[in-house]
Amino acid sequence: MTIARSSDVVNIDGIQDLESVGGTLELRSLDNLLDINGLNALIQVNGSLVLEDLGSITNIDALSNLSLVGGEVEFHGLGNLMNINGLSGLSTVGGGISIHNISNLTTLQPLANIETFSGPILIGSLPIENLAGLENFDSLGYDIDIEWCLNLKSLEGFPPSVSNLGGGLSIYKNAALTDISALSNVNSIGGTLNIRSNNSLKTLSGLDSLIRVHQFVFVWQNPVLLDCRPLIPLLDNVDDEIPGPGLGDIPDVGLEVVISENQATCNSIELFGDLVSWGDFD
């Protein structure tokens, strides 16, 4: 079911008895839609739930009865949305979460009741300070992208029970980020690790348990990053899980490693060959 690209739609009250959608439910580019109260009865969406470019809605409380989305939850460009409290009853998401470019959304806490989760995660351009709300996700089998969250200070809320990431992990352009210690239980990344352009990040403490990355490792353009020692178990020449994914001098990384444009103490892969020379990082 798609309702899209109309300036005439101010409400969707005509579907107020709708309890289940067999496929995807999309509301897109409805500039004058004032609310989504017509979804008050909705319990289940078997496909994806997409809300995009709905400039006038301030809340999604009408979704409070929704418990299952079989596909992706995709919210983009909701400029006046103040919270996602309407998702507090959601327990199952089967196709990922993409929440991006919502300038007033300061917390993901209403997602805390999600217990069964599959799919990629994109969290971007939100004024959140942490990842609280993601704690109970039971598995992370696909890519995780956390980007352009300029107020994000820590990754607190990252699921502590997850040790193996099936996809990649990208932490990009989070200007206030100083603490990634919530990643301390992660020991394997199935895709690429990308830590780039985080202007306040001084240490990679939190990656101490990481011993396997199946694709690339990029740590670059983090201008104050001076302590990369937590990556020693990953980037040394010891194969921590035989056989590791890499065939060269770094057996725990499957493809190329790029460490560049950080502070001098964390600016080259060659530093990992002489650990004594790393000196004082305080």
Task: Walk me through this protein's architecture.
With 282 residues, this protein is mainly β. Helices cover 1% and strands 21% of the residues. The protein is built from 1 helix and 19 strands. It has one helix spanning 232-235; strands spanning 2-4, 20-21, 25-28, 44-45, 49-52, 68-69, 73-76, 92-93, 97-100, 116-117, 121-124, 144-147, 164-165, 169-172, 188-189, 193-196, 212-213, 217-220, 257-260. Strands 1-3-5-7-9-11-12-14-16-18-19 form an 11-stranded parallel sheet, with no helix packed on it. Strands 2-4-6-8-10 form a 5-stranded parallel sheet, with no helix packed on it. Strand 18, helix 1 and strand 19 (257-260) form a beta-alpha-beta unit.
Give the helix tally: 1
Order of helices and strands: EEEEEEEEEEEEEEEEEEHE
Which percent band covers the strand fraction? 15-25%
Shape: elongated
Q: Give the proportion of residues in helices.
A: under 10%
Distance between the termini: 56 Å
Give me the count of strands.
19
Label the structural class.
mainly beta
Keywords:
mainly beta; five-stranded parallel beta sheet; 1% helix; disordered C terminus; elongated; 282 residues; eleven-stranded parallel beta sheet
Question: How do the strands and helices of this protein lay out in sequence?
Answer:
Layout: E1 2-4, E2 20-21, E3 25-28, E4 44-45, E5 49-52, E6 68-69, E7 73-76, E8 92-93, E9 97-100, E10 116-117, E11 121-124, E12 144-147, E13 164-165, E14 169-172, E15 188-189, E16 193-196, E17 212-213, E18 217-220, H1 232-235, E19 257-260
Parallel strand pairs: 1-3, 2-4, 3-5, 4-6, 5-7, 6-8, 7-9, 8-10, 9-11, 11-12, 12-14, 13-15, 14-16, 15-17, 16-18, 18-19
